Structure formats: C-alpha cells, structure tokens
C-alpha cells in the first residue's frame, strides 16, 4: 500500500476536536460565544479529512487506511478507516458540525456556554476515535469516553434535580451494557491467548484483523451452559451485543434515552443522531464477521431489534412532550438498525449496508427533527404539544423543514422508483430484508414487527406535526422564526433528508459491502456463515409488488389516521386517550418500566440485598474489630502489673536480661 | 608487671560489690554510691586494657567516663534532694508513684 499524504492526516480526525476541547475548556470563557469557533473549525477540518478519505475509498475501496503503533507489549493504538468507518466518520463530523453551528445561537447567553462547547467537542472527538479504532480495546476506551460525555451533557444543567437524575440514570443504565462489553473483551482475550498459546511476537492482540482470524477456532470452542453446547463465539458476541443494547437504547436498557432530554436540545440531537446511540450499532457492524459465524446471536439481535422498534413505537404515540416523542422514535429506529444487522443471517454482508444506510439517513432527519424541536422550544418556550398548535404561522421555515424530516422518518416515497425521502430507501430495505428472511425461514415475526412499527412511526410523527404546527394556538405564546444561524443548518439537513437516500441508495450499500472484503482482513463471509450453519439467500429488493408497496401503504395509513384525529379532529379520542383507559395508562406510564427498575430492582432487590448484607457484615466486622479492642485491653490490664514503680525491680530485670543475653550468645558461639 | 587478669579480677569484684549494693540498699544515696563503684570498675577495665595493648584509647574513654559519672552524680543527687523535699523520705522502695 502506498503511503499518501491523506493517510498522514487520518489520526487528526479525532485529535482536532480533542484539542478544541482543551482550548475551549480553558480559554472558552474569555472568547465570544464561549469559544464556539474553535470546535467548529476543528470539526470542520475533521469533516474535510473524513470526506476526502471517503471519496478516495469510494474510487478505490482497497485503499484502506490502517496504522498501528505499539502501546503496551502486544496491544496497540491505531487508525483503521475502511468503508464502514469512513461513512461513519463523515456523517458524525458533518452532523456534529451543523449542530455546533446551530448551538452558537441556541446556547447563546447560557452561563455554561464555554463548558457546553468544550464538552460537545470532546463528545465528538470520543465518537470519532471510537469509529476509527483498529482494535477493540481502543474502541472500548472511546466507548467509555462517549459515555462520560453523555453523562456530562445530559446533566449539563445540573442545578436542576431532574437533569442530575437523568444524567445519573443514563450513566448507570449504559454501565450495565458496558460491563457486559468489557466481559466480552476479557473472554475474547483469554480465549485468543489460549488458542495462540500465549503472546505472539509481531502481532497486535486485539486488533480486529487478528480477532477475525481466530473466528473459526473460537466457533469450535464449546462450553456447556444449562445442558446446551454454546460456542464461545456466541457468548462473546452476545456480550458485545449487551454493550450495544445499553449504548443504543435497545429494550430493556432503553430507559435512559427518553430521560436524556434533560440536556439542551442540541445535545439530544447530538446523542440521538450522530454520537452515543450509533456507537452500539457501529460495534455490531464492526464485529459483524463474528456475529455472522454465531447465528444464535444474530437471531437475538434481530428479535430484540424488531421488538424494540415496535415497543418504543407504542410509547411514542401517547407522549405529549415534543422531545419525548422524538426520543421514542430514536429508540424505535435504532431497533430497525439492529433488526437490519440481525437479518445478516439471511442476507450476509448486505446487512451492514442496509443497517448503516438507515443509520446515516436517520442521523440526518433525526438531527433535523431535534433541531426543529429546539427551534420551536427556543421561540415558544414550551415543549408540551397540548399547549402548542399553529406554530406553522409564526415559524414557517422550521415547520417546513420539520415536515420534511417527518416524511423522511415515516419513509415516504414511490416504490420501484428513485423518488423518495432518504428514510424510505433505508427503512424499506430493512423491511424487505425481513420479508426475505421470513420467506426463507418461515419465521415472520421480524417482518410483522417491522411493519407494525412502520405504522406506529407514521402515526406518532404526524401526530406530532399536526399537534404542533397546525390548528389554532392552544396557549398564549409569542413565537418568532429563529435566526439564520439556526435555520441554515435546518435547511441543509432538510435537503439531505430529502435527497441523500435517493442519490446514494445502491452505491452506498455496495460500498459498505466492501468493508470486510478488502486487503485489510479479506474475509470470506459465506465461509463464516457456513461455520454457523446458515445459508445466505441473496438480495433484497426483488420482491413482489405487494411486498414493495406494503410499507408505503402502512405509512400513508398512519398519516391518514393522524390527519383525521389531530388535524380534522373529526374523531374525538375522548375516553380512549385518558388515564381511565388501562391500555393508554400502560403506554403513558411507559409500561411501568421506570417503576419496576427503580422500586422493584433497585429499591426492592438491590437495595434490600445490600441492606441485608450490610447488616450481616456489620455484625461480622464489628465483632472482629471490637474483639481486637477487648483483647488488647484485657491483655494490657494484666501486663501493666509488671510496672511496679520500684527502681530495684527494674534493675533486677535489666541485669537478668543482660545475663541471659550473654549466656545465650555464649551458647550460640559454642554451637557454631 | 602485674598480669592483666588481676586488674580484671579486681574490677569484677568491685562490680559485683556495686551490684549487690544497688540490689539490697533502699537508701537512694547509697544506691548512687554503689553505681559509682560499678562505673569505676568499668574504668579500671578500660585503663587496664589500655595499658595492656599499649594504646591511649582506653585511657581517653576512662576520662570521659569519669566526667560523665561526675555529671550524672550531680544530677542524681539533685533529683534525690528534690524527692526528699517533696516527700520527706529517701527510701526508694516507698516511692512508687510511677507504678501502674
């Protein structure tokens, strides 16, 4: 591989935002707008480098950038930019850049402005470094850093108790996943060390190509768990997926994501579109060769993803908070991405293509949705949809861009043609893959989940649009259109939401399929799938007209439902949408998950066990400590009688001691 | 020349007498005097060895030891005087205020 100038700059991609963090953190307060210009310039530079690398990879997918530097013994730090990493880098830096520009206006006047920009710069740096890690340990370090930044930013307004609680919740919930991920790394490391017979010179232990080369042997290692023979690969991949479940807000660890709304809206946009939640999807995609050789894990990924897509959608349709609807929407869409990856057992590497395609498209329209919501909240001062209404009149640009984002989210487009919003191409690809999977394995559950979730998506997002932007104002608010520095990023994102999918649909997926078929690892995915004994069946997109049109029909149906109920207001929901209706109450209370987690698990079980344990420990430790005390006092009580106070006794003791010593020395000398 | 063993024998005798005195007497002044006896037996040894080895080291040590003994006696007697003024007695067996 010829070393070109571009490669020299690859490591700058995460480094520049990291430097921006340092500068803004220390000097931001003295600069205008909290030093926002520093991270903006740094991320813009990162974006340019990423884009140039992506374009070069597009022209020649073999020119993977791979640099490794020794770190500790057989561990390394390094840069790996293959098609998968390249598109992620470009997307993360681009969306983050727009959000930073938008935030200059959104955050202006906040006393913590400099802190905000420092933390978002670090957030971006951590995410970029996560994406271009060439080994799993470096990825884990960045993974934790991303977690830290989300904690800092969700709790940005930490003087509010609810924000502090939300930050804590996000940190603790994702920590469950992080521990699973770490356990997976430990199992993987110990297995590789065992297989390789110790440390090998000249290799980097946890580099991805090194890990992938052990897949057949890992797959052959079996452990008996509850009478089932489980391959180590299945265990490791499930643990990795556990990490992804935490970070990417999959059921049952999604509970932190809606609460993450407590941070500034721009932070929500950053977390929900570009950084935090995509990390989990990226992890599964990055280690995809391992997953494809472990079909049981892929099945778990598919089912959990499909279920999450539907489950979050059901809660999305009853929320009244603007941002909470979007939060559940994110969880649901992440479920789609995981579902797409899980379908890899049927469609092979194409799974990465469709999943990442949805991830990128989703980043555009979800960032747009959040920034629009931020624009509304900024201007109107409330985020309760019951108090909004008619905002279209005062904020036309915001209303138009948000409508575009809604169309993209619901996946509007004309099947069989290249006309459609970006969400249309990526979501339909996943749904069609689910259909293909169902046809092949006679297992229609993922398909049913994905269709039902598509209907819910359409209902909740148009409910949001109609409740917020149409009709008459339902409260006394004064709004105005946001300044250009906010509406320009909105417009750019709106354009991307509209056309990106249509422009890149085939090229994108073909490009991504090159990820594991290039000079860096060059894996035979078919061979790996054979390890897991599943047959890859082929390409999505060749189904009957009905299959192609069904997602579209469902989306239109959802729009129609929302239109009738929330725009025309012909059908009054009345008692159906009140707390008296048990189903509505169940949804509105979010399936009581918060209650179950906090009161049952943490207060009931964890707290109870800890309380019991601490009582037992109290008794044990107390008796040890006090026993030592009592013993010491008792012994010294007796020993002190030696102190007679009579000088002559002391003299006798001294003389007796010295005499004994002399006799002893004499004896020893004799013996020697 | 008198053999070394005679000096050492005399010194051992002196030391034993001093030790016996310290052990048996109750009067503080007598005890101090006995300690002086023990110290001097040590000095005798030092001087004897010094002359035996034909060096001056032992003699120098002896001079130091005598000077120290003088200073110690002064301090010791001063303490005894103070005790006598406070308690009106000099019998060390009865002065047990330092016991447990």
TrEMBL record, chain B:
Subcellular location, principal: membrane
Annotated coiled-coil segments of the chain: none
Any single biological process term in GO: ATP synthesis coupled electron transport
Subcellular location(s) per record: Membrane
Record keyword Transmembrane helix present: yes
Membrane topology: Multi-pass membrane protein
UniProtKB keywords: Membrane, Transmembrane, Transmembrane helix, Transport, Ubiquinone
Pfam families: Oxidored_q2
Cellular compartments per GO CC: NADH dehydrogenase complex
GO terms assigned for molecular function: oxidoreductase activity, acting on NAD(P)H
Membrane-crossing residue ranges in chain numbering: 6-23, 59-84
InterPro entries on file: F420H2_dehydrogenase_subunit (IPR053568), NADH_UbQ_OxRdtase_chain4L/K (IPR001133), NUOK/Mnh_C1-like (IPR039428)
Family from the record: Belongs to the complex I subunit 4L family.
UniProt protein name: NADH:ubiquinone oxidoreductase subunit K
Record organism: Methanosarcina barkeri str. Wiesmoor
Lineage: Archaea, Methanobacteriati, Methanobacteriota, Stenosarchaea group, Methanomicrobia
